[in-house]
Amino acid sequence: MSTRQVSPALRFAASIIATGLIAGLVGRACTLLLHGVEMIVWDRHEDTLLHAVEATPALYRLTILSLAGLMGAASWTLMFRKSRQLVSVSAAVSGEHMPPLRALWHASTQIVLVAMGASIGREVAPREMSAALSAWVCDHLGLNAEDRRTIVACGAGAGLAAVYSIPLSGAVYTLEILLAAMRARTVAPAFATNALAVLVSTGWNRPEPFYTVSELHVSASLSCWALLFGPILGWLGVAFRRYVHIFEDAKP
């Protein structure tokens, strides 16, 4: 019996379960790859990454970051040699085809570079991989366009949730950012896939905090500093984003 002969409701339910499982496995794989590279590059074992990096000489850090830049340039040059097109998560949600192998290549490169110290963020990779694989599941189950859009968005949000162990935030990201829709047909799958993804990725136990922030005491000097440097930093952020677009348009 082909999948087309199964009722749409059962196919939709199956896609929800499959997407949650896939996103959880993707999140777990990204975490293991990240920690594995950190152990090799920074000799990180029991201590935090910050302490492991601080224990290395400055020249070693510079060398690793330079090597990360060269590896990223080589990987993405090879990937874009045949095609410059890179399907974003938003485009995949809208129905554009996101090749899973290309997404895997792109995501793996990001994770390795982040582990080596590049400040490009670790959350994009699991979102892209989960979205690509969720779309693949939808295509094989023969979901209609609207259900496919919902499941791909759920996959992207669940990938984010799995890598950071944040099911509620992943569901909100799915509903508010990707789908911009609050109805039973989207809310239930969003919460189900995100909860299942986090359960698969991290289990019942909460992981250690990703970031520790020291206690901050508000003072007059700190407030004056914020008022003075806030606009400057904001302007620098706008300028940085503008130049990023300029360089993206100029790349070969």
TrEMBL record:
It is a multi-pass membrane protein. GO terms for molecular function: chloride channel activity. The keyword Membrane applies. Keywords: Chloride, Chloride channel, Ion channel, Ion transport, Membrane, Transmembrane, Transmembrane helix, Transport. One of its GO terms (cellular component) is chloride channel complex. It comes from the Bacteria. InterPro entries: Cl-channel_core, ClC, ClC-type_chloride_channel. It is found in: Membrane. Pfam families: Voltage_CLC (PF00654). The chain crosses the membrane at residues 12-34, 58-80, 150-175, 187-204, 216-238. Gene3D superfamilies: Clc chloride channel. PANTHER family: CHLORIDE CHANNEL PROTEIN CLC-E (PTHR43427:SF6). This is Chloride channel protein.
